[in-house]
Design goal:
Elements lengths: L2 H8 L1 E2 L4 E2 L7 E4 L8 E3 L5 E3 L9 E3 L8 E4 L2 E6 L13 E2 L25 E6 L5 E2 L3 E6 L5 H14 L11 E4 L11 H15 L4 E8 L7 H8 L10 E5 H4 L2 H19 L5 E4 L4 E6 L10 H14 L3 E4 L9 H5 L5 H19 L11 H5 L5 H8 L8 E5 L9 E5 L5 H10 L4 E6 L12 E5 L2 H6 L6 E2 L1 H5 L4 H16 L6 H4 L16
Parallel strand pairs: 1-4, 12-13, 12-14, 14-15, 17-18, 17-21, 18-20, 19-20, 21-22, 22-23
Antiparallel strand pairs: 2-3, 3-6, 4-5, 7-8, 8-9, 10-11, 10-16
Helix pairs in contact: 2-6, 3-12, 7-15
């Protein structure tokens, strides 16, 4: 027996402990507990011995990486070696965050359209007067400023307690409000435009069957000022709409009583809506991530990406945002654009955000949170390369502003932050009728009017937070399922949630987080 064969027999296959994501990579991502001096066999039969215990989700070098050479994961640079030996744990001590800035974009760029399925699956939804299809049917209370948010919350809470019963109104999903801390006299310019666009699109959302608009009465964003904006699509806005001015009706108590009366009037009307069968091409999927870890870009994000491809090939729409999490990998998205003009818009969107962040003394490289870093996402490039896979592999059809509605089906990129509390409502305001939220470390966020499905990157988090997470992609890490299998399973889960056959766990727990992005932070 050769000496090399003897050594191989004493080492474990690398698949038992770590994952090499791309054949070009010079690192492996740890998936099981390791120890100092652990030896693993690479696919090419070479042996790597770990110099120390490497935590889950982190990386070790599968070969020597000389100083100045790029460290590679996903087949892409994730940093520059400061001198890394074989089997060494990759940390900020031996790898800088420096990666090449790539802005190549062929002038004749043309990405072919996806191959569409001949037979498109169906789901059960609510058809609205403008032809859009909703996945839920809510009464929504919309305060036009923070000054009406308390009353809006009271109306929703008390109406659900006293008047709304699912057994009486089986076709109504509930009475909800979207309280916030904006409006009044503290906003101008793009802040005001974003706020009004977001509130308007929530009121006009296909998941909303009836609306109550509320103001205090003296604020800059009072009903008289915003009514034309909120109802600017008046010919299409064919749903019950009531208005309440708190000062006008005599204060909090009377405003809440009147709001509850309006809700009682709307519930029988909304209950007349019935779910019907529609092609799943009518679905708008928002894709989001939070509490990410080193496994997110290997399991849950690419699994969601496979699901996104299935929906796009079914002629549906996918919305992706979190622009700071494209930094360092934006060339991949830009070169996926349908043409050079769209690709340039991708770059312009990211450059705008970099400039915007710099005005407040921030840089996009600081995006990974302490939890991200602890979970293995050492820098924004690693995070970005994994995050962008949520939107699959089909071409990018368009780039839109925060809370703007896309004009093209397929994959669309929405301007906006990575902050969960602001980016999720932005996707909803842009028209998402269901959201899938991937997470590695675990998150609980939901939305007032759209089901938010959680997809975990690892089995441990799924089991620990089984009351909040809907689907487990950790089976990809465990080796019991492929990305294709998880993505196909997730697609069916989305179809069932969209049809109202099952609820997302965030819905069950009544998570209704809402806040919109304020580009400017000056209050007057």
């Amino acid at each position: 027996m050769l000496i090399s064969e003897t050594i191989t027999q004493t080492a474990s296959p690398i698949g038992n402990y770590a994952i090499i994501v791309n054949p070009k990579d010079n690192v492996a991502v740890v998936k099981a507990k390791t120890s100092k001096d652990l030896s693993v066999v690479l696919p090419d039969k070479h042996i790597v011995t770990l110099q120390t215990e490497v935590p889950l989700g982190h990386r070790f070098a599968t070969r020597e990486i000389p100083a100045g050479e790029f460290v590679l994961q996903y087949g892409q640079p994730i940093g520059t070696s400061l001198g890394i030996t074989k089997g060494e744990w990759i940390t900020h001590d031996n790898m800088s965050n420096d990666v090449p800035i790539v802005r190549d974009l062929p002038e004749d760029l043309h990405t072919p359209a996806p191959e569409y399925f001949a037979e498109i699956p169906t789901f059960e939804g609510f058809k609205r007067a403008d032809g859009r299809i909703g996945t839920r049917n809510f009464v929504l209370i919309v305060p036009t400023s923070m000054c009406a948010s308390h009353e809006a919350s009271q109306i929703a809470m008390m109406s659900e307690f006293l008047h709304y019963k699912r057994e009486l109104f089986p076709n109504v999903d509930g009475v909800v409000a979207i309280p916030h801390n904006k409006g009044c006299g503290c906003q101008d310019g793009t802040n005001l435009d974003i706020m009004l666009r977001t509130l308007s699109n929530y009121a006009d959302h296909p998941n909303v069957g009836g609306v109550i608009l509320m103001d205090l009465g003296c604020e800059k964003t009072n009903l008289q000022f915003v009514e034309k904006y909120l109802l600017k699509r008046e010919k299409e806005f064919q749903k019950p709409v009531y208005k309440i001015g708190i000062q006008e009706v005599g204060g909090t108590e009377k405003a809440v009583e009147l709001g509850m009366k309006y809700v009682q009037e709307m519930l029988p009307i909304l209950n007349e809506a019935k779910r019907e069968t529609f092609p799943i091409s009518e679905l708008v999927l928002g894709v989001k991530c939070g509490g990410s870890d080193g496994f997110s870009g290997i399991s849950c994000n690419p699994s969601l990406g496979y699901t996104s491809d299935l929906l796009v090939r079914s002629k549906g729409t996918v919305l992706i945002t979190e622009i700071p999490e494209f930094c360092g990998a934006e060339h991949i998205v830009a070169n996926r654009a349908k043409d050079a003009e769209t690709g340039r818009k991708v770059y312009e969107t990211i450059d705008w955000y970099k400039d915007y962040a710099s005005k407040f003394g921030a840089v996009l490289n600081e995006n990974p949170s302490p939890g991200n870093i602890k979970g293995g996402l050492l820098n924004i490039t690693i995070k970005s390369l994994g995050a962008m896979s949520k939107a699959g592999t089909t071409r990018v059809e368009g780039v839109i502003g925060y809370a703007e509605t896309p004009t093209e089906k397929g994959v669309n990129l929405m301007q906006g932050p990575g902050y969960d509390q602001e980016s999720t409502p932005g996707l909803v305001a842009s028209g998402a009728t269901v959201i899938v939220f991937t997470t590695g470390r675990g998150t609980t966020i939901g939305n007032a009017i759209v089901p938010v499905i959680k997809l975990s990157s690892n089995t441990a988090t799924f089991e620990r937070m089984s009351g909040d997470i809907d689907v487990n992609a950790g089976t990809v890490i465990d080796g019991t399922e492929t990305i294709k299998e998880v993505g196909t399973r997730l697609f069916e889960h989305i179809r069932q949630v969209a049809s109202g056959e099952i609820k997302a766990k965030a819905e069950i727990h009544r998570h209704r987080e809402f806040q919109f992005w304020a580009e400017q932070t000056v209050s007057l």
